[in-house]
């Protein structure tokens, strides 16, 4: 977005839809967003790769919310047009399994923008870390079903999450799982600038992305769901690669070497020539999960199809017999909750989302 010229009378901004600029009417000069000053910051709850997240109180409504500062690219001109578009779209999304983006508020400076979101007590990454015992299979099914319902909704709205992982899955004290940090991936530019693999986790990245595909589809989210399902079942990450080449190698070790036969178009992917993939003819999923039922293994296989076109969709997974056989998914209320470090100061459970039932 073009920097408004504060000295002059008029503010001219670049058009999103058409080439050229338009003049901001004087009455909209200060925008129509509330100020972040209307929120009392209570404590820092997360600092991800791109933004700081606070637990905060809306002083107008007394509601407890999560406030995420959108980190801007300093070299660029303010907030990218694509993220504005994305945020506008996300504000309209409403689903019990998607974190609610309530509004966008502004700080003192033009470049400080905050997202106001429904507050969730924990994220699955810290939950997994702090749990004394692994999730039961019934609990895993309950979580994954909720992730799938949220994803089905996102995908139906033409949104690819692009960064699904356990730290982006939040859970309320009522056991309601909500996908967070969604869609905004584009706001920060994807693929993200090269960073150490420790910062931007590779573990959930689909093979077509690792091999440089330029067409991103909803199936990249489904690969990540496979990794999340496996991680919840095994209580440890499935494919914890330390570099892109290591990540690809771990995938090949687990699933066998891909070929043009099982994945038409594979050999033409931009980065295929850069790696010499080990020859590994077997699919080792069954060895990794010897105790898993046939239906469970079928679901994992379906999520880990090399060919993105053949990979399970969220709808396919929701139909899976795995979720209909014993142990049946537990009720969200039976999810483990811990006194979480964030809640030390006992957040009043005023958030609307918390009192609502989790089912769509
Ligand atoms: N709505 C929310 N309620 C509670 N905690 C949240 C919320 N949104 C984010 N967090 C916490 O902040 C962390 C980082 O937020 P996230 O949106 O994933 O940003 P980043 O892009 O920095 O990863 C999350 O892993 C989670 O622990
Ligand atoms: Mg995140």
UniProtKB/TrEMBL annotation:
It catalyses: L-threonyl-[protein] + ATP = O-phospho-L-threonyl-[protein] + ADP + H(+); L-seryl-[protein] + ATP = O-phospho-L-seryl-[protein] + ADP + H(+). Residues 334-360 are annotated as: Disordered. It is found in: Cytoplasm, Cytoskeleton, Cilium basal body. ATP binds at residue 68. This is Cyclin-dependent kinase 10. The keyword rRNA-binding does not apply. Belongs to the protein kinase superfamily. CMGC Ser/Thr protein kinase family. CDC2/CDKX subfamily. The gene is CDK10. Its main location: cytoplasm. It comes from Pongo abelii.
């Amino acid at each position: 977005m073009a920097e408004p010229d504060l000295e002059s009378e008029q503010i001219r901004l670049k058009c999103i839809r058409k080439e050229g600029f338009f003049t901001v009417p004087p009455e909209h000069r200060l925008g129509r967003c509330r100020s972040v000053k209307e929120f009392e910051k209570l404590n820092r709850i997360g600092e991800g790769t791109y933004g700081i997240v606070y637990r905060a109180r809306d002083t107008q409504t007394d509601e407890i919310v999560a406030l995420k500062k959108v980190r801007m690219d300093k070299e660029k001109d303010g907030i990218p047009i694509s993220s504005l578009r994305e945020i506008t779209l996300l504000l309209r999304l409403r689903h019990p399994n998607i974190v609610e983006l309530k509004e966008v508020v502004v700080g003192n400076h033009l470049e400080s923008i905050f997202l106001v979101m429904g507050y969730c007590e924990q994220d699955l990454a810290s939950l997994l870390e702090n749990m004394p015992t692994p999730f039961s299979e019934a609990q895993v099914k309950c979580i994954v079903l909720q992730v799938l319902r949220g994803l089905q909704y996102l995908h139906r709205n033409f949104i690819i999450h692009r960064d699904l992982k356990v730290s982006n899955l939040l859970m309320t004290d009522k056991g309601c799982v909500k996908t967070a940090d969604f869609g905004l991936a584009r706001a920060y530019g994807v693929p993200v600038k090269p960073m150490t693999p420790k910062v931007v986790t590779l573990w959930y990245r689909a093979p077509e992305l690792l091999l440089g595909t330029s067409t991103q589809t909803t199936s990249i989210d489904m690969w990540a769901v496979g990794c999340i399902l496996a991680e919840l079942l095994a209580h440890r990450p499935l494919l914890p690669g330390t570099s892109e080449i290591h990540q690809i190698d771990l995938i090949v070790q687990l699933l066998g070497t891909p070929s043009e036969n099982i994945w038409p178009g594979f050999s033409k992917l931009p980065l295929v020539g850069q790696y010499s993939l080990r020859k590994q003819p077997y699919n080792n999923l069954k060895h990794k999960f010897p105790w898993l039922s046939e239906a469970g293994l079928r679901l994992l296989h379906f999520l880990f199809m090399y060919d993105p076109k053949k990979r399970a969709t969220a709808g396919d997974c929701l139909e899976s017999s795995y979720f209909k056989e014993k142990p049946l998914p537990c009720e969200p209320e039976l999810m483990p909750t811990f006194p979480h470090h964030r809640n030390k100061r006992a957040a009043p459970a005023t958030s609307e989302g918390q009192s609502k039932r989790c089912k769509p």
